[in-house]
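Sharing a chain and its predicted structure for anyone who wants a worked example. Both blocks are below, sequence first, C-alpha cells second.
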Amino acid sequence: MPDIFQSFFLGGFESSTQRRREGVRLDLIASTEHDIRAAEDYALMAAHGIRTVRDAVRWHLIERRRGDYDFSSLLPQVRAARDAGTQVIWDLFHYGMPNGVDVWAPRFVDRFAEFARAVAQVIKDETDTVPFYIPINEISFFSWGAGDVAYLNPFARGRGGELKAILVRSTIAAIEAIRDVDSRARFSVAEPLINILPQSPSPEHVRAAADYMDAQFEAVDFLAGKRAPELGGGPQYLDVVGLNCYFNNQWIDHGPTVYLGDPSNKPLRDLIALAHARTERKVFIAETGTEGTGRAPWLHHVADEVAAAMTAGVPVEGICLYPVLSHLGWDDFRRCPNGMIEAFGNGEPRTVYKPLADELARQQGLFASGYLQRE
C-alpha cells in the first residue's frame, strides 16, 4: 500500500516563475495570492482530504545577488504548512532563475547547489518533519522548451541535450548539498509521461518514434547512472518518480495529438507500468488535470487507470491534482479554469469547483475502501 505521502490525493500549486521573451516575469504563486493566503489554501486542502501538496521555492526572489539570501518570500509558506500539518514536496527550480543567472555558465551547477543547501537549512530549522524536494521540475520538458524550441528562457535552439546534462548535474549537486544538511531528505523527479506513435509502419518511422519514446527516460536514466556516467549519476540519486499526465501527452511523431477515445491511444495504466519497469522505483502521478467541464471526468479516468495499474502490482503512491488552484495563463494571462479551487487574485474569494471536488471525494472513498480494479 502507498506509504510515502500523508494523503493518496495531493494538490499541486502552479509555481512557474520564468521570464517571458519580452522580459515579463511570471510568478503564479503571487498571481493566485497563494504567497499571502497559504494558510487558507492549506486549510482548504485539508478540508478536502488533501494533506500532501506540491509547492515551490521562488529562487528569483530569494537570491537577487549570489549568496545573499532573503527567505521572507518562503517562510510564510513553510510556517503555514508546518502549522497546518501539511506535507510539502518543494520544487526548487520551476523554470525560473534569478535575473543575471546564466544556465550555460560553468558556475551554474555550484550556484544552484549552494541555493539548495541554504533552502534545506531553513526548512530544517523551521520544521521537524522529513523534507521532500523536487530539485528541478520537468528536466525533459524544460530542456526541450528552453534548449530546443526557444519557448522558455534562455530561448535556445539545438542545445536541448546540452541543457539536459547541465540540469542533471545540477540536480545531483543539489541532492548532495541537501543531504549534507539533512540526511533524512527525500527526493522526486517530475517528468512528462508520453507516448509517441510512428508516422507510418515503415521501419524508419517505427525506429524514430521508438527513439523519441526512449528519450522521455533520459533524465531519470542519467540520474540513476544507467547512461552518461560522466554526469555523475547513481542509483542513490533516483528516489520516487513523478509522472506528469495530461490529455495531450500522446501524439503521432511530427503529427497530431492522439486523444482519449482514439483506438491508438495507449491506456494510461500501461504507460504507468512501463515507467515503473524502466525506473525500478515507486511512482506517483505528479501532475494531472484539464480545463473547464472536463475536470471531473478527467480525474475519473486517471483514477480508474491508476487503480488498474495498482491492481496489476505497480506501486503507485498518489495522484496530484495539478494545478489545484485555477490561475492566469502563462502566455496571455487569461483565466484558466483548471483547478478545484478558483484563485485568480485581486482579493477574490476562493470558490470550490463542485464537480471536481465531488469526484475527488468519490475517488478518495474508493481508494480508501481498497477497491482498485474497475471496469
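Comments welcome. The longest strand covers residues 186-192.
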